[in-house]
Structures are given as structure tokens and as C-alpha cells.
Amino acid sequence: MRFIFGRKKTPAVPGRLIAGLGNPGNEYAATRHNIGFRCINHLAKKHGISVKQSQCQAQMGTGPIDSNHIILAKPKTYMNLSGKSVKSLMQRYKITPQDLIVIHDDMDIPLGRIRLYSGGGAGGHRGIESIYDHLGTRDLVRVRVGIGRPPEHMDPVAFVLSEFLPGEVEVVERVIRLVGEAVEALLNEDLTAAMNRFNQRREAEIPCDQGRAAPEQ
Question: In which order are the strands placed within the sheet that holds 100-106?
């Protein structure tokens, strides 16, 4: 019998990039604009993926979600320059726009709802505008997470940089888990099937007995 020693196992190459958008710093951790970061934290915790590496101006990590080897990333460039970090990660890991999923807040969607979407206009979201500008394409999948509209006479910028109200916290935690389920579906199904499952689903359908999703950095 012949044994061969010293042969190294080839590491899995990530095939998808999941980027959650937000702003770095503890002062922004619990704000509406940072719900993309919180969704990445939830996915990382659920699937045992450490997102402590610093690469390409992002806090990131790689690992498996089901049978998919993916990258989870939180760009640390501030929201308006998110595209710089996302493009750099894509170039480093040879990720195509079709294999990119971006999770971000959206004022045009009620709190507790999400929309899976391919391309489309940025709707004034500076992080999405930055990604479009840097990639030169809109051909990517977006998970739009509703944060609701600002109260009358409130500046929209002040609204997205505000924290969720105490009465909204439970809904936010449940919708973060819904985003996790939607991302898993996007990795294992085609976009149309995932859209049909999640675009009309309300947060109230999510089981309430699961763990809380903390606003980590």
C-alpha cells in the first residue's frame, strides 16, 4: 500500500459575494442605514463564518452557506463610497456582477418588508449609486430592506441616521432573520422563485422564538 504525504487540500474558492451596506463606527451601529451590516452579522453567526478579516477596505470572511462557498462583507468606506470596496473585493476574488448580492436599507419599503430585486434605479441610495458607478453595471441582485418613511418635516438624511424606535426593535430583529432566509434562497434557487417567495411576505410570518440579531460592528 502506498501513502502520499504532504499533499495539501485545495481551498474552496468563493463563488458569491454578499455585501451588506452601512457606515463604520459605534455611533452608526444601531441606525436604520446600517441594517445591511446587521444582516451580515446575522448570516455570519447563523453559519459560523467569522467576519473579522480586513481586506479591500471591508470587514469580511469566507465560508460555506449550505453547499455554497461565499464571501460575507461589510464595506468600511462609509456608505457613499461602498462601490470602491465592493469592486476591489470582486476583482480580488474574481466575482462577477451576476454573483453579487447587496443588502441595503430602503425608505420606499415599509418596515418589516423586503424586496428582492435585480438592477433598477438606486432610488437616491448613495451606497447603491456608488456600486453602480464603480461596476459600470446594474446587473446585480439587491435585497432591499424596508425601514419606512421619515415623519413629516423630518430630513430624510437625519431619518436614516437615526436609531429604530423601541417599538420597532422586535420587527427589525425578525426582518433581519427574514433577510437571512431570503439570501439562502437566492443561493439555492433562481431569482424569480426567491422573489415569489419573499417579496410579498410580511415580517409577522417569521417565527418569534429565534435569537436576537444584535447591532454588532
Answer: 53-55, 58-65, 68-75, 16-20, 100-106, 141-146, 114-118
Catalytic residue among 33, 42, 104, 125: 33
Catalytic residue list contains 42? no
Segment 97-140, tens digit of pLDDT: 999 999 999 999 999 999 999 989 998 899 999 999 999 999 99
Q: What is the CATH number of the domain that holds 116?
A: 3.40.50.1470
Domain hosting 60: range is: 16-205
Residue 66's H or E segment, with its range, is: none
Question: Measured between alpha carbons, how far is 144 from 105 in angstroms, rounded to an integer?
Answer: 6
Tell whether 212 is covered by a domain. no
* Among the listed residues 104, 103, 139, 101, the one whose alpha carbon sits nearest the alpha carbon of residue 120: 139
Cα–Cα distance for residue pair 131/146, rounded to 1 Å:
19
Give the global pTM.
Answer: 0.88
